[in-house]
Amino acid sequence: MPHLELDNVSASYGALRVLDGISLSVDRGETLGLIGPSGSGKSTVLRVLTGLLKPEAGVVRIAGKPVNLGNAAEVRALRDRAAIVFQQYNLFQNLTVLENVMIAPTKVRGRKPSEVRPEAMRLLEKVGLADKLQSYPDQLSGGQQQRVAIARSLCLKPDILLLDEVTAALDPELVSEVLDTIRELAQEGMTMLIVSHEMGFIREISARVAFMADGKVVELGSPTEIFDNPQMERTNDFVSKILRH
Amino acid sequence: MGDLFREIWQMATYYNLLFLAQGAVTTIALSAFGCILGGLFGTLLAVARLTDGAMTWPLRMLALIFTEFFRRVPFLVTLFLCFFAFQFAGLDVSTLTVGCVTVVLIGTAFLAEIVRAGLQSVHPNQWHAATTMNFSLLQTIRYVILPQAWTVILPPAFGFFILFIKDSALASQIGVVELTYVGKTFSNKGFSAAASFGVILVIYFMLSYPLSRFGAKLEKKLAPSRTR
User: Fold this and answer.
1) For residue A172, what are the CA distances in angstroms to A143, B12, B79, B209?
2) What CATH number has the domain bearing residue B122?
3) For the segment B76-110, what is each residue's pLDDT rounded down to a tens digit?
4) Residue B74: pLDDT band by 50, 70, 90 thresholds?
5) pTM score, two decimals?
6) How far is CA A68 from its chain centroid?
7) Nearest residue, CB atoms, A50 vs list B126, B132, B148
8) Is A94 close to B132, i.e. CB distance below 8 A?
9) Which domains are assigned to chain A?
10) Range of the domain at B50
């Protein structure tokens, strides 16, 4: 049974249809890479999975159980299980690194700060930021902020991690430090859905890769199938263009 | 100049000082009512306007209509509207009560707009991050948005407070004994306009200057890290 499943999901921004009957599944502990041109609907998939956009049709299932995305309680339960890391980090600018990581578990989940603090510190140590606990986000580099964002998501103990182009806003020399962190999570068996333009990384880390265009999954297969032997012309065009650069 | 000071000295009788104190206290009370209750209700209206979904649509519309109406109607007109509304309703209330209700209505409308603009000045990605971590609307505003919005809210809010102290002078038009009313009374008693309103002017300044200094201090204290 897939850990996370989208079944025939359609979603729009006003009159613009962004997802057109998309079906995807991610198994427990699997990393699925989502690639495609800009505007293909990759990030929208993640917005639907975090309840930021309500789909018009289709079903989202977690561990086989359908989630009613029109029901606030079910959306909250979904968000408890699936955490997202954004392209722009979205750290709370008014809080320190440690406070950013601790705030949701303490204020939203109601856990004791004394209990959350060691976990938050361990996670920040894991992402290599143990010396930045009292820094504010604007005192950190992009790569450091992104690692704080990953630690913040992990402190919520999610089953599923959704990564939305987490290296797109980073300088090239900062990309590797974030990718190392994600690589480690994949090895630990975290279920992950990764939207990225880092084709080399997607190829290395994903068990399967889905190529999206115009709100549809055009092709789904192993990294070798998608990158070396694509069956669809659209996939071939995209991959050959990307690999040429 | 010497004559002016002599005249002010003559003005400083026990009764006149008491009358002046009464005017000053009323001006402070009116302004405080308008700023504190207006700030409180204004924040509620601002939050109401930031809700989404069909359920809260009537609330949003109500907040919008209230804000737009009372920001457009002049203070004096609102004052008379309240004055006659109480009369029409058959309620026998003091002119001070009418003044207080008016300042709260005006304060709420203006501060709602200032707070709304401040809350919306915070980048949408901060709202998204909080939403995806299951923060409620109030938790998002309290822990994430408001601390970042202070720098945008405080300067116009304190500017408005100071303007408000001066606008409360219009309450004298319906007979509320506040500072301007006291100045007019002194003038009617035979003191020169320069002496009567000169004293009032100094007291208005003494009320508003510390407030603007306090606003600047608060702004610095509550500023987010990037401006620290």
Assistant:
1) 10, 75, 63, 52
2) 1.10.3720.10
3) 999 999 999 999 999 889 999 999 999 999 999 99
4) very high
5) 0.81
6) 21
7) B132
8) no
9) 4-244 (3.40.50.300)
10) 19-227
